[in-house]
Predict the structure.
Amino acid sequence: MMAEWLMYLAVLGLVVLTALTRTFFFLSERPLTLPDSVVRGLKYAPLAALAAIIVPDLWFVQGHAPVSWQDARWVAAPIAAAWAWWRKDMLSTIVVGMSIFLALKLGVGW
Amino acid sequence: MARVAPGMMAWGLVTGVAMTTSGLPLGVVLCMSLGVFAASAQLSAVPLMMVGAPLWVVWMTAMCVNLRFVIFSAQLRPHMLCLPLRWRLVAGYLSADVTYVLTVHRHGEGEPAGPDHPAPLAYFAGAALVNWSSWNLASLVGIAFASQVPTHWGLAFAGTLALLALLITLLKDRISVVATTLAGVAAIACHGVPFRLHIVVAVLVAVGAGLWMERQASVRATP
């Protein structure tokens, strides 16, 4: 784990980063043009970063390759994903996913 | 706005829960929750801070997740230019996903905001305020609630589900779906690289693959 003062520094950096990325194109009054390929490439970065956070979270069990298929996340996540695709709604996706997850985990004991 | 506020509150709640169950000190969790105001960046940074990754890795990973805001800012630009720099910074800081989507949906193609036409900015400010307050309130409730729930319930999974829902709503076309799938595969394949750098590898893979597929598609479209 990081030293605590470093964590506060990390948080401060995150505040600045968030403000800078969100104001990027209207920070300066002069029009800012980026090469077309950069703008198009930018589209894929957040998608990939999110996938790279989510997929290993779902696949691995505490950092190790899975040993059993009886994993509540593997049932809950695909159903939640299908729901999200259909409804495009975050609240109901979390409710659907967590209901299945907790039912399997606490009810069936997976 | 009333339609999206409940979703925002759920998102704040699970972010609060996930950050608290990660084991970060409470002071850090509170600062992050109230200060950063970017849940996906927060949730990507927390595990990195837990494994003691260098600062530049934490910031670079959060930056990758935040790059979508750069694109959003281009579309908000026409409405923001009438504001002084100080207020542009405040507005930008507050323009999270939901605020952006609502504002662009309503005023995106319309007349740019100005002294004679304040409607887009008024709408933006209203959405941002509701969004900011409901999100922070819910995060605080999540932080308070998480310590009461046994860890074997695995409530951190709710954070993953929220990111999953966000990712799926961002997927708009087939090339994005393929590039995102490749990123997921790359992340599994690179598992075990230090400091969760698999996220950066996955971003490079997806950007490369996405641009390549776009070029193939345009070559086919214009023979």
